[in-house]
């Protein structure tokens, strides 16, 4: 006579073994995803409420490449000579007007909607340099 307990035990053991084969796959997938995800966040802005120190105050010449790369000829073609928006390729009257009325500070540092979504964003070092340029009264 067939022992029903033996059959049930065999079925449970087979299902247990099948599940044991899945567990390593789940672990490998989890580790792979965990290791790959942080690489997608390398351009996050680390916000700091700390005031810039005297040695950190930057000039336009210090941040010109950032502005060109993030706002102008390097990527967006928005803030360039002859464009619709103020030209940031040189320290000029159009740029000075934007700076005087705090539009630059509002859009870049407060609202943080510039550069616009879809364009390369400022990393934490670039953001800090621009913040210190603003705090230093936009030195040329």
Q: Could you write a compact summary of the structure shown?
A:
The protein has 140 residues and is an all-alpha fold. Helix content is 52%, strand content 0%. α2 packs across α5.
Give a short account of the largest sheet. none
Helix and strand string, N-terminal first?
HHHHH
* Tally of separate helices: 5
Radius of gyration, Cα only, in angstroms?
28 Å
List the helices and strands and how they pair.
Blueprint: H1 4-36, H2 60-71, H3 93-100, H4 103-110, H5 124-135
Helix pairs in contact: 2-5
Structure description:
This protein folds into 2 domains: 4-41; 54-135, no CATH class. It has 140 residues and is mainly α. The protein contains 5 helices and no strands. Helix 2 (60-71) packs across helix 5 (124-135).
